[in-house]
Amino acid sequence: MGAVEATVENSTDMADLLASLVLPAGVGSLMNFSEEEAGYVQSDYGDFAAVHSSYKQSTVVMVIYILMYAAIFVLCVCGNTSVLYMILRTPKARGVVTNFFIMNLATGDLVLGLVNLPFTLVTYIYVEDMFGDALCKLVPFLRGILVCTSIFTVTAIAFERYYLVVYPTEEKISIRTATRAIMSIWVVAVFINMPIAMVHRSEVYGGQHICAQYWPADTLRRVYTCFKLITCYALPLIANALLNYVIVMNIWIRPPVKSRNPSPNRLRAVKILAATTVIFGLSWLPLHVCALLEDFGFLSWSQRESMHHYVYPVAMWMALANTCVNPVVYGALNNNLRESYRNATNPGHTPLLLAASRTPRPTHTPRINEHVHIELKELR
Q1: CA distance 336 to 326
Q2: CA 190, 192, 193: angle at the middle one, nearest 5?
Q3: Where is the G-protein coupled receptors family 1 profile domain (predicted)?
Q4: What is the pLDDT of residue 267?
Q5: What whole-number distance in Å separates Cα of residue 238 and Cα of residue 277?
Q6: pLDDT tens digits for 198-211?
Q7: Can you tell me whether residue 200 is helix, strand or coil?
Q8: What does the alpha-carbon distance between residue 119 and residue 132 come to, in Å, rounded to a whole number?
Q9: Which residue among 58, 162, 301, 347 is least packed, with the fewest CB closer than 10 Å?
């Protein structure tokens, strides 16, 4: 027995030494920003030492995670499917530029939920990589693309609303222009996330397959962390805030001449615009804070392990909840999509979806706020 105990102790010491000395330099942070932004949560360093267990948490914690992620999965699928159904079943709805962007957003969020949630839940529960080297590369890469696409599409919607309000007499953004914008969004998202596919691979440590990131140097990993933080969070957040602020200034603070006070519909439009920015910022903030702490916080081993097992799952859950909130913000609170739903479920119903577009363009240059009041029917 003494020999066996000594062997086990020596094996554990060797695993600890491997995790603390070799992996941080070669692998870098397994829970760093790039990986979290992609929505793919891998095993952490502590798991290389704790190879005696197949699970990362206790049974109670695993049940809580399963319930949390199952709820998000159901809401994401039902919500985004409903939005797509509303738009696709109404031909005229597909001709509205805003709805065109919303379709792209709902599609990205739907695929993100279908692909991301099951794999993320499994990687939070099991220590060993269950999917092999191919999926180790493909899944985080695809998820990173979908996350960036969702964020950029939200910004595109804000810009389209801004252009409609601030330049009401100019020609509207066409479907062709919107299509080019969406294609550009996908191309940029692929380019940004290329390093994720390049640094991921599954290798064997302690007799178990571990999917991890293998950076040539920690400096490169930290540079990429900052790059993703700026391009996929900070800049879109600032852009959304500024664009929505300008919109609010035009449709609420300076109401039309005929109305001294903002109408209920106008207040609803302002709430929708404000909600998009606030929800986006709050949903993704915890995950980015964790990523910065991971790379720049000089955390101890126990702090790092605790954050991987208990903080990251909640932060990721909050980020994924954004895929459920978007259908509510852009669907349930949007008169256009509600009209599309009525038209889809009641073929005899004549939608008011394009009431603004059916209004003839005035031959004279209108006062900006009066015209904005008409055009914002598409937003409300």
Answers
A1: 15
A2: 65
A3: 79-330
A4: 66
A5: 9
A6: 988 877 777 777 77
A7: strand
A8: 12
A9: 347
277: which 2 tokens?
């920015």
Question: Could you tell me where the beta strands, DSSP code E, fall in the chain?
Answer: 200-205, 208-213
Collapse the DSSP code of 285 into the 3-class scheme (helix H, G, I; strand E, B; otherwise coil) and give the result: helix
Report pTM. 0.72
Name the 3-class secondary structure at 126: strand
Kindly provide the residue ranges of all beta strands, DSSP E only, lying in 228-352, ordered along the sequence.
Answer: none
Domains and CATH numbers, the chain: 2-375 (1.20.1070.10)
Calculate the CA dihedral of residues 311, 313, 316, 322 and round it to 10 degrees.
-110
29: which 2 tokens? 């942070």
- Sort 210 into a burial class: Cβ within 10 Å, 0-12 / 13-18 / 19+: buried
Which tokens is 95 given? 């001709």
280-308: string of b/e by CB count within 10 Å (b at 16+)? Answer: bbebbebbbebbbbbbeeeeeeeebbebb
Strand partners, 209: 204
Which uninterrupted H or E stretch holds 263? none
Structure tokens, 254 = 């300076």
As to burial, measured by CB atoms within 10 angstroms (0-12 exposed, 13-18 middle, 19+ buried), residue 30 is: buried
Q: Between 210 and 145, name the one with better pLDDT.
A: 145
Contact 126, 56 (CB under 8 A): yes
Which two tokens mark 153?
A: 């599409």
